[in-house]
Amino acid sequence: MDTRPAPDALAAVLREVATSGPSSLARVATYLLGAPDSHATETIGSIAEATGTSTASVTRLARRLGLSGFKELRVALATLPTGMGRGPGADDGVVLPGISWSDTTTDLLRKLAAEERRTLAEASRLLDPDLLEAVAARIHAARRLVMFGVGASQLVTRDLAAKLDRIGVLSHVSADRHDALAISGALSGDDAAVLVSHSGTTEDVLEVARAMRDRGVPVIGLVSRSHTALAGLCDFVLRTSQGQEAGVRPGATSSRIGQMFASDALCLAVMRVDPARSRALLAATRAVVDPLH
C-alpha cells in the first residue's frame, strides 16, 4: 500500500515549512515550491547547493514530509505540477518569501532586513578567496574588459564598471546582446569578459558566453549556482547567493544583493592587486570631482 502523502497534502506541508521562518528547511521548501516537477530531476547535491544548505537538510525535509528519504522526495515532486505548490491565491498573499501584503511596514522592514542579512552571509560563504584573487589578477591584466547582463544583472555590471573605471580598469558595459556579440569579434585572449546571470540560464548571456569562448576570451561568470549552462561556459565562476524570491515579484531583491556583494568584493580585490596605483587613481578622480560638490 502506498503511504506517501497525496500531492495536495505534500504541497500543504511544503508551504507550511517554507513560511515557518528563516531556516535551512524553509530555504529548501521554498526552492522546491518554485517548480516542483522540474526539481524532481535534480540531484540532492544540486538542490543543497542551490539553496545554500546541505544534503542533510534536504533529507530532513523529505522526512518532515513523511517520506523515507530523497529518492521518495523526487518521486513525490514529480506528481506536483509547477504552480500547484504555491496553492490557490498564493501570489495574492505573498510579495516575497515570508513577506505578505498584510504585513505592517514595520514587519516588512524587519523581514526584509533579516532576509538580506542572510543573503549577505551566504554570499560571503560562497565566495572562494583564492578564486577571487585569481579573477582580480586576470581583470587587472586585461587589455579590455567587457561586461554583460540582462535586467537587474545589467545594473550590477554598470555599478562594477563605474568602480573599476576609477582605478584604471576601463570597462565597456554592453547594452544588449547585439552590442556584446559585435564587440566579441574584436576581442582576444588578452581581454576578459564578465557575464552576470542569477539563474545561469539567460539565453542572451549564454549566446554571448559562447561567442567569447570562440574568440578565446577568458570568461568570468557571476552566477548563483555552479552547475548551470553559464557556469559550464566560464573559465572562472564566482558564486552569488541563491536568495529567496517569489515567482511574481516587483524585481530582483535578495538575488541582486548577493550579486552586488560579489561585485564589491571583486572590485576591492582588483584594487589590492596594485594598491599604490589604486590609491593614486582614486585620489586623482576624487580631486577632479571635488569642485562639483
UniProtKB/TrEMBL annotation:
Organism: Schaalia naturae
SUPFAM superfamilies, sorted: Homeodomain-like, SIS domain
Keywords on record: DNA-binding, Transcription, Transcription regulation
Ranges where the HTH rpiR-type domain occurs: 8-84
Pfam family, one: HTH_6
Alphabetized PANTHER family for the sequence: GLUCOKINASE, HTH-TYPE TRANSCRIPTIONAL REGULATOR HEXR-RELATED
Protein name per UniProt: MurR/RpiR family transcriptional regulator
Domain of life (superkingdom): Bacteria
Residues of the SIS domain: 135-276
